[in-house]
Protein 1
Amino acid sequence: MIRSELIQKIADENPHLFQRDVEKIVNTIFNEITDAMAKGNRVELRGFGAFSVKKRDARKGRNPRTGETVEVEEKHVPFFKTGKLLRDRLNGNG
């Protein structure tokens, strides 16, 4: 599902809301999650999962085309851990 499909589904299920308002709500939620993670904070949505940021240290990598050793800088990457309810539902237990 892509963002526009999510917005359309929420708008369809809530006919009392204008689509532009639903779009603002969805965008605000995504922006708040992104902003919190950019600050290094963890975002937990109970029953769904938790978003966090993991730090990857600098290391020596290898260019797969040439085999040459290259320096890979330290970086921060997003990480998602599923919640128990989501995991159970995916495995047919819920």
Protein 2
Amino acid sequence: MTAATRAPSAQAWADAFAEASNTDPEIQAHGKYFTCSYLLDATERSYVVEVQSGRVTNVAVDPGPLDVAYDFAIRASAETWRGFGEPVPAPMFHGIWAATFQRDMRLEGKVLVLMQNLRCITRQIELLRVVGAPV
């Protein structure tokens, strides 16, 4: 008999993600102007990450469509997000551009805001290797 493993709650993941981002030296070095909010949509669960001057100020878990505004959305299946959460991701799960071109990831909304904050967003996605997938 094996013990069932239980994934952390959505709020526990959100707290771990915020902590990892707020203590990451790279984001803190590059994030002075990193201010935006974005939706991480993993089909089964969604999060709106709010960032002010390089610090995550709030992560809303499963917000309704009018609960929290966001600038852009990064949408993918739970399977794709789980691929990003692997310690050593497989090919095409290492970055949002690869996943957009070769997997089911979609970038929607104000893509200019995404591009203006691309280095920090990329680093936050890389932190999924540490905190795990959002689903």
Protein 3
Amino acid sequence: MNNHLKKVLVVDDEIKILEVVKSFLESKGFTVFVAENGRQALAIFERENLSLVLLDLMLPDLSGEEICVEIRKKSRVPIIMLTAKIEESDLLTGLNIGADDYITKPFSLKELYARIEAVLRRSSDDLVPLYNKTSFNHGDLEVDFESHTVKKNRVEINLTPHEFKLLAALIKYPNRVFTREDLIKVAFGDEFEGYDRAVDSHIKNLRQKIESDPRNPVYILTIFGVGYKFGGAQNEA
């Protein structure tokens, strides 16, 4: 992986972790910024064009979850959460509010680098801002990620929780082609119970609700032999 010009923000209130991770990532070619609290982190985020954020959940001022939500209002920059929490509900909360992955403390630098490589590989080089309210195709489709509401031609439509999570996952990575297995992991994490083919049924129902012509979709595209991708053109709502 070519790390030239990639900027990483490491957020943690443990100085030793900041020093070790910063030194390690710099040895891998990254430009590294560090923050000991949430306010410093958000200031650096606003100032720098970051490629990745390593974000501790337990900080002295703002929580990692709060910082993640603030970043996701403006950017899809990949976020890996660093956490001592081991409760599944805590980890799922982080993924549901926009984190791309998590790693539990204590962790090895080798494991951390493997996670970073995987997240950067999955991420688009052209990171598009993700607003709380986002519209596509000149307002034909509107998605409010905060209230979990969707409108088609300005009329609110009813999506099931599974349908909304699938749509949100596809929108988050507009240039990524998902296999069924990948889509399940990104949309649901470990909470999904059922066969991967169940995704096809959810996609079919979702198309019936958001596509003007479900037989010729413009939002949820089938990539034959692989899976699905999102095809809408984004505009800020």
Protein 4
Amino acid sequence: MATHPQQNLYSQLEHLQTKYVGTGHPDISRHDWCTNMARDSIATYLGHRSLVTLFATVEGESNGRIRYHLLEKLHSPYGESDEIVLTKKERLTQF
């Protein structure tokens, strides 16, 4: 017999969340989610030379300098997190 489709969907989602950091989970902080999104975007920009060339043309800089700045941003696009990360259980018991 087959399992319920919804249960199968949740197990697949949990598998993806453990395999790939950027997919998030219910306890992810806003800062971590935004950082993952920014890193994904920057990695896309670096992977497409035409986008780097476009940014270089708009800013009046060389392609190498734009790549360097994007690589620097990739490390920590929004700085360090000031948030205290609480689990779902801790948030519920807070009130």
